[in-house]
Specification:
2 domains; alpha+beta; 3-stranded antiparallel beta sheet
């Protein structure tokens, strides 16, 4: 990788901010939450055709490309998730090639899993998400999906939203179902 100023000076004009450095401070995918001990700064640049945005890092043998900055961030998030799962979670201390062992060590030196457990040590894997960008109302299909994510029946989920079920009762339901 070279000096990012060289890439900028050799390129045509691109939308403001597109070639600004990307500082990665955390990786999130499903229940996986990783935090960089020091943010990793990547310097995006355009490929020769000017069509793709590229980013790379030698320490992780990382090369990513995308059509725009937001997609590049998603790709980077996915790549770090795959690297963590491949080199750290799944390999353990298994037999790795020297290059793979170096990538594993760089991941372990620079990333730390965030605590995703509750106060009593139970894993916090029950959650739901609703997009705030959508203008459509919450229909039965979405309510059922959110109830399922929260491990509740539809009527229980509605009660949870309307507040007759508080946190204590919700946790009791989950314990009764052996989910906590």
């Amino acid at each position: 990788m070279g000096d990012p100023a060289v890439y900028v000076s050799e390129l045509q004009t691109y939308p403001k901010g597109e070639l600004e450095p990307i500082a990665l401070s955390q990786i999130k995918y499903k229940e996986l939450r990783l935090k960089f001990k020091t943010p990793l700064t990547l310097y995006p640049y355009k490929d020769e055709s000017g069509e793709l945005l590229l980013a790379e890092d030698d320490a992780y043998e990382l090369f990513a490309y995308a059509e725009d900055r937001e997609e590049l961030k998603r790709v980077l998030n996915s790549l770090f998730t795959v690297m963590w799962n491949t080199y750290v979670s799944e390999s353990g201390d298994g037999k790795l090639t020297p290059r793979a062992a170096k990538i594993r060590q760089n991941l372990l030196n620079n990333l730390a899993p965030e605590d995703t457990s509750s106060a009593d040590g139970a894993e916090a894997s029950i959650m739901t998400h609703m997009s705030h960008g959508s203008r459509k109302s919450v229909d039965d299909h979405l309510i059922n999906a959110m109830a399922k994510q929260c491990r509740l029946k539809k009527n229980e989920f509605v009660d949870l939203v309307k507040c007759p079920i508080d946190q204590e009762k919700y946790e009791a339901i989950l314990k009764e179902r052996e989910l906590l």
